[in-house]
Amino acid sequence: MSKKLISRRSLLGATATGGAIAAFAGPWKHNRVWAAGSDKPIKIGITSDASGQYANSGASDRRGMMMAIDEANEAGGVLGRKIEFVHLDTETTPATGSRVAERMISREECGFLIGAVSSGVANAISQVAQKYGVIYLNTNSSSPSESGANCHRVKFVWDGNGTNFAKAAVKNAIATYGKNWLLLTNDYVWGHDTAAATRKLLEEYGGTVTEEILVPQGTRDFSAALLKIQQSGPDVVSAAVGGDDQKAMRQQVAQLGMGEKPAWINSQQDWPDVYGLPLDNLFGVFGTTWYYKLDLPGVADFVKKYQERYPDTQMRVPGNVFYNGYMATRELLAAIERAGSTNNIAIIKQLEGHKMPAAERMQHDDAWIDPVTHQVQQTIYLATANSGTQDADDMFKIVNHSSPDAVLDSDAAAACKLESYEDTPTFDA
Amino acid sequence: MMAVLPHILNGLTLGLLFALIALGFTLIVGVMEVINLAHGSLFALGAYFALTVLGGDWLGATAAAEWWTSLPLASRYIAALIFGPILAAGAGLLLEMCLRPTYGKAPLYGLLLTFGAALVIEEAIRLVWGTGEQHLMLPRSIDGAVFVGGLIYSKYKFFAAAFSAAAIVAVWLFLERTPYGAIIKAGSHDSEMVRALGYDLSRLRLLVFGFGASLAGLAGVVMVPIWGLRPHVGIDVVIPAFLIIVVGGIGSFWGAVVAAIMVGLAVGLTGAYAGAWATMSMYILLILVVGFRSRGLLGRKSALEN
Asked: What's the rounded Cα separation, in Å, for the pair B179 and B170?
């Protein structure tokens, strides 16, 4: 049996190595300073779905982010530093979202996370991000709980939420179509939250929920639910069904000729969920934050820029998901410039309460980031099928728009309890 | 009671469609003892091939393409219904050739290979047909709605259910009344004995896999006007197909049909009265059946039970 003595050299080496590890890994959780003042690239983690229910929306979201990053790099970067990104597929699965976020922060060394379409995934990512103090922009998920009960100091929500969209739609629809509503709800967090918001508004405006049908995520055949709707005979069906499920539902409703009666309200609908569907599949009214045919300055240039950058993309024009991804990324990079640093707390303070002029956002009203909920308060549009067009891309016409004040979600503000700055780990990316 | 009848009818039609999906799967498992995780991808391939046949893109910008697209939709649809499964069978034959080195080894090898094949096929679909939603156009005669007992039903769904029923009977007749069917059935009982009797086992496996793949492709062509056509549509197929053959009894033809109808009824009825449980109902059915009868409804008795 050999006996080894620890030499002074090896002891010194071990101490130095241990010290180096402690310097980098030890304070990670509470005070991570690795790149301040360096010309190290700023690394962004794109946490969008490339597979699963929201794969198409995830791709659109990602394109928006990448265009904003490319533009920033072409303009010389941010704080003189190049922007780099890494993308991992969150698979429309919360567990994968957590895993991806953890990996992006601890192994890929991403200083910021952006992306999510499913609220379940967004919530999972944001919990990991809060643990490390990494700023996370939830670009396209719109459950009211994301800026309500599940809000976090590091998380900012860029899409309108279910309550915003319901507020824009419910009152008008009761007057136009009738009081008896049936709720068709995707059985997960976004569906439930949106249905709850609709239910509350209906009670407020004198409507009635006659029935609620829950449809599991991944439902391909809606015939049982549609038969039930026929039997129930409501004035309005308020559908909170998203992604591929919505595509299947629309095709089946259209096939049965049920698109006109009862009236259909889709409080929120993403462009990739319906792009390319035949016109008779586009029944009903839905809410959105943007449309590429808005008659506002800058929209046409934005569309042109998209088409030049993505000439081979199946979606020939940008939609609301692309828009949200682009705007969120652009505003994050602008906030870093304004902060003059990549310190997360300094950037959070730049984002909180930040006002975004209507002209810059290509919307009808000025928008702002609510400092209480971290949600972007913005114009909400109601749209319906554009029956009088030959242009395959010009699928919708905007029916009306509501100002951010008119659709404000006061419940989210009451439910949201942001962590204090002190409870949020700080670092420089 | 009257209120339930439309949902029972809906469940039955759904069950017949599920049966069509599960048939090829059960045939391959029965004869080859390979759980073909690429079954859903072959289902998707069949539908995409049908889409191409229907649209005439394969002819390019030629006079032939112009002639093809000028034909009535019904005749192009029939061509798609024939060639979609045939082309899917071609893909199945290739897959079987890839599977050959795994024969005689642990089942995990075949399982992994077919899983890999599923991923490859899905990516290939994305490359060839794009990532977006596609539509299989339907002739007017089977499109639209029909009134039954005061409620509106999808005309196409009735057509698809009737077509599935006819396909099930045709496959059964093939297995029962033709020499090839007899060999396949014998192979599913004891493939080594079939070889001992002088039949070429390689050819039998090729035949069965090709036939199973064509049934997957056929199910794809029939189902996608209801489910929608997107590259990962195959994923939606594998789980119900697997579940159905386990409930029915692995390798049992009529077991698969009965289980599919039970699953259809479970999904249809829960979808109407307890929507959130519609998907879960399949699994509950599986637990109930396997809990009481581990070999499934009509499965053969295992050697372990003797």
From this structure: 15
